[in-house]
Amino acid sequence: MPERFHLYDTTLRDGAQQEGIQLSVEDKLRIARILDALGVTFIEGGWPGANPADTEFFARAQTELRLTNARLVAFGATRKAGGTAATDPQVAGLVAAGTEYICLVAKSHDKHVTDALRSTLDENLAMVNDTVTYLTRLGKKVLVDCEHFFDGFRANRSYALDVVRTAAEAGAEVVVLCDTNGGMLPNWMGDVVSAAAGIGVDLGVHCHNDSGCAVANSLAAVDAGVMHVQGTVNGYGERTGNMDLTTLIADLQLKYGWPLLADRQLAELTHTSHAIADIANQPHLTRQPYVGHSAFAHKAGLHASAIKVNEDLYQHTQPELVGNDMRMLISNMSGRASVQIKAAQLGLEITDRELAGQVTDMIKQREADGYSYEAADASFELLVRSMTSQLTEPFELISWRVLTEENTDEGVPRDSSEATVKLVAKGERQLVIGEGNGPVNALGQGIVKALTPAYPQVAGYELVDYRVRILDEVRGTDATVRVLIDTSDGVHGWTTVGVGTNVIEASWEALADAYTYGLVKGYGLVEAESR
Ligand SMILES: CC(=O)SCCNC(=O)CCNC(=O)[C@H](O)C(C)(C)COP(=O)(O)OP(=O)(O)OC[C@H]1O[C@@H](n2cnc3c(N)ncnc32)[C@H](O)[C@@H]1OP(=O)(O)O
Ligand SMILES: CC(=O)C(=O)O
């Protein structure tokens, strides 16, 4: 490991350049605190002066952000062509941000200087020199991001290196080689980094993911000697995104063995990734390395049978090191071992090999009939309990019936549904009518009404999501339907599945499982007693 190594996070600047992400000042402050707790070296907060939110962020950061691990960095550009750094309003905005560190983006590809800046190669070098010199004289520590460096190096090697040299000689602490268009491949990185290393300044790398190689390219640059790596949490960024810092941190720490973060900080990696996705209002990528929900999820029976002996046999690292969990998925690809491991995770031992085989066969048959247990852990647990004689049914259904009509109450045509539910709970027969704006809603009301006298806690159960999938679309209205229902009691969440030839039948099965499961687990009991 180099003597000094920087993890430079640009989620708040380049990450916010991703389509669909818009961060408020409050969001930025929250993310900065999370990143600081994770233990990154630098947090690039945005471009002061570019928009009111970024300007306000830096103003508020001066009084509201107490960073213990990281340094805050203000990002901006070199001065305008033909002017001076001392009189450039954009540079003044960077100074006003009040940070010790400033990162300047500088052109390093000759074509970008002539075509995009519409300036000369010499003037661009003067812009770099003037801006870095001006800021360092003010006591700022300056990093320089050489935009399009790798493409520029291929087009005009000596000019790209001149930009690095100019920045270094003007006093830049680190010069960062950027793969701005993200098209590099790992085996193209080393030679370019080595050529720049000859200049004798600390080097960094900033990769975009357009070739799908941002992490690999960054690792190749690290191998070639860079001591500073820029990226974003979850790989947010322009187009296909930036290098995913969560993957890189785990790679360097767990594969290279570099102690970049304390173990307890590394164990926050999964939480950090999810928390920032929540704040950025982005769905979390389930297949994200190390931190994704599926990163350590095992579906194949053969994998499970090996994992039963030794978890390491089908895992490249231990999930708990990054704060993630090993999960066993139950499906038509499961074998006995999958079922035994999953049941054990749910607190149900199935030591008998034959019984485990019977449960597995039942799962496979039900999956063939349309059930899916991969997400529906609660229905799986009920099935295992039932087949292993560990289920006391909290109620016994006698029948249900649903009527839907369009009526014109108060002169306004609208649909309404009634569900008649008959069941026995704690020895009492209940016959109730539930009303709802649709048949499933009415059934839900009916089952709650029928169960409440015996189990008042069901009033606290809420159906939070409902998903329907038609399984054999070609059969049209005659098709088999699968319903998945997510239920919550405010503390726990559980998922159940139902299958039927119509959506109401499938919904009833998923609903009945949902209430059975909640009652079997004793969910909501304490809250109901305190009411
Ligand atoms: C590779 C990267 O991702 S770098 C980060 C890019 N991030 C962003 O662009 C997001 C924030 N940007 C903005 O809000 C705006 O673009 C601003 C405030 C920076 C500038 O806005 P405007 O003044 O309206 O200029 P506009 O965006 O049209 O053009 C950029 C100007 O900067 C100049 N410029 C571009 N790169 C550089 C550079 N490295 N150094 C100096 N000037 C530069 C361009 O030549 C152009 O100059 P011109 O106005 O004289 O034509
Ligand atoms: C600086 C930067 O964001 C880039 O070159 O991609």
UniProtKB/TrEMBL annotation:
Pathway, per record: Amino-acid biosynthesis; L-isoleucine biosynthesis; 2-oxobutanoate from pyruvate: step 1/3
GO function terms (MF aspect): (R)-citramalate synthase activity; 2-isopropylmalate synthase activity
Source species, domain of life: Bacteria
A Gene Ontology BP annotation from the UniProt entry: L-leucine biosynthetic process
Reaction catalysis annotation: pyruvate + acetyl-CoA + H2O = (3R)-citramalate + CoA + H(+)
Any matching Pfam family: HCS_D2
Cited SUPFAM superfamilies: 2-isopropylmalate synthase LeuA, allosteric (dimerisation) domain, Aldolase
Alphabetical list of PROSITE patterns matching this protein: AIPM_HOMOCIT_SYNTH_1, AIPM_HOMOCIT_SYNTH_2, PYR_CT
Enzyme Commission number(s) from the entry: 2.3.3.21
InterPro entries: 2-isopropylmalate_synth_dimer, AIPM/Hcit_synth_CS, Aldolase_TIM, Citramal_synthase, LeuA/HCS_post-cat, LeuA_allosteric_dom_sf, PYR_CT
Alphabetical list of SMART domains matching this protein: LeuA_dimer
Ranges for domain Pyruvate carboxyltransferase: 5-270
Keywords: Amino-acid biosynthesis, Branched-chain amino acid biosynthesis, Isoleucine biosynthesis, Transferase
Family indicated by similarity: Belongs to the alpha-IPM synthase/homocitrate synthase family.
Protein name: Citramalate synthase
Source organism: Brooklawnia propionicigenes
